[in-house]
Amino acid sequence: MTDGRTPAPVLDRIRVGSAPDSWGVWFPEDPLQLPWWRFLDEVSEAGYDWIELGPYGYLPTDPARLADETGRRGLQVSAGTVFTALHRGPDVWDATWEHVSRVAALTRAMGARHLVVIPSFWRDDKTAKVLESPDLTPEQWRHLTGGTEELGRRVREEFGLDIVVHPHADTHIDGEANVARFLDGTDSGLVSLCLDTGHYAYCGGDSVQLIETYGDRIGYLHLKQVDPQILAEVVRDGVPFGPAVARGVMCEPPHGVPALEPVLTAAQGLGVDLFAIVEQDMYPCPPDRPLPIARRTRRLLRGCGA
């Protein structure tokens, strides 16, 4: 943030938005979540121009209706989101492509150009049940990297979209070592990264360092922060991601880490246009909580120059 005397840098290559996640939305349907129309009303009221689709089926999936609903609120769509388990090899490809195709078609129809790809969890995000090993075998790494390249190729050929892979807590693409291994093992022309500042910090990574090291692979940003004290408790107690979120591990900026202004400044320095989508994980949360946080976060980002 500026100190009141030094003007904030002009981050003219950064396009700021928000997502259903910041309103406590994790599922297409859930009684703990607010209705989609309220999310659209409030994200616009908070001062954002761009949104993501969130979990497929939460927002209307008819392109004409969704275009009408977003358009009359002054909103545009930056990306869709898909979930994959490509490390499991060819057996999951058909089901993966069926899911990806539905989301990609709606994403393209809404004029967006990105598809955020989230890898599957190795443990259940609610019960902590271990579903598979947190470490991939060499064969599984080959399935993951090769399958992701094929996904990037087909999504671009058939839908004109670019995939951006999202490192995520409790998945096989998480902290510095696994993110570097994944990037080094994939074609930069087919696979870019969605750097989520909160998840990367959750897993011990330094977002600015990642941007400086792999700048040509950064295709998209998610902005969030983690509470270091709660994170230390989560790590100590082996808490899975879902309950960690319920504890408040993902906190409102600027009360956590990493500081967002250095991240945005480093991203601006790449010299390319990037979306920076606010995603403060808050599931579940009271329905009246998200809007005030969204307003304050938007003011903070304006103070950073975005």
Automatic annotation (TrEMBL):
Gene3D superfamilies: Divalent-metal-dependent TIM barrel enzymes (3.20.20.150)
Keyword Isomerase: yes
Transmembrane segments: none
InterPro entries per UniProt: IolE/XylAMocC-like (IPR050312), Xyl_isomerase-like_sf (IPR036237), Xyl_isomerase-like_TIM-brl (IPR013022)
GO molecular function, one term: isomerase activity
Keywords: Isomerase
Location of the Xylose isomerase-like TIM barrel domain: 40-242
Key word Isomerase present: yes
Name of the protein: Sugar phosphate isomerase/epimerase
